[in-house]
Write the structure tokens for this entry.
Amino acid sequence: MPHSEVHKQKFKKNLAVLGMIVGFGLLIFAVTIIRISGG
Amino acid sequence: MSTTAPKATDTIAPDDTLGDYFTLLKPKVMSLVIFTGFAGMWVAPGLNETHPFLAFVAMFALAIGAGAAGAINMWFDRDIDAIMNRTKDRPLPMGKINPDEALTYGIVLSIFSVMLMGVAMNWVAAGILAFANLFYVVVYTMWLKRTTPQNIVIGGAAGAFPPMIGWAAITGDITLYPLIMFAIIFFWTPPHFWALSLFANEDYKRAKIPMMTVTAGAHKTKIQMIAYTLILLPITLAPWALGYAGIIYGITATILSTLFLVSAIKVYKSEDLKHAKIMFGYSVFYLFALFLALMIG
């Protein structure tokens, strides 16, 4: 099924949002590890 | 062979880019927030015992929180931003970002920044960050900005919280020193913004924003600018007088604040808007230099 321009732009944006969510998750994980280890 | 036409609800701004989403965060304001917040953190007792990554995360959370408040401000003010020359090129008036997406972006980032600050540092700093954001969005943007000439006097408090947040992130409490830093920015804000509104007066008039220059006129505004820079002088000397900062800061603050007062007097004496532009530019340098002196001194 051909992808429209709308699809491509939304896909890019959704990918960026996913990246942000993953990034924030990793940040919280790193912070938690440091706090647990007494940092 | 057929292609599916986009539905009417699939409207997205065709030109929105990551850069536009970054612009929504008001990066220039963010840089001032980060710097003053870092200054509060730097002078707080206990910074040496804080893990550097956590300190970085605290600054990141502050930056994101400030940016989120800026994004929500741009969402709410997109109607007047479209009218003003100074702001009509922002992403929302230009139609580059969908307003609903901008609002969601701001709210999500705001909540995340508060949670991140709480998890990384403590809930005192997170609470002040949340309060500062709410104050900027609800009290200043949605209420005061369009209703009173005291809008940036009261609403400017939002920009004065970052050093308190930086301090509280390290110590978990608030004492006199961060309150003095709050007071410095609080009393700096009116002359800073009124200098801007002197040369952007037509813009504010067109957008019907009741800035002091629009409601009371340039002359009365200039008198108030002098008053605030006069009040600022002893406040900026307080860290040195109370023993929080050394003589280097004392001398630097005296020189910087005196020059700020002199610039306000020059603005008062002259009809030439050039002096207002110079004062506005100096006011930005002034705050950076003052807080840098606090960190060094």
Remarks:
- Residues 116 and 164 of chain B are 17 Å apart (CA to CA).
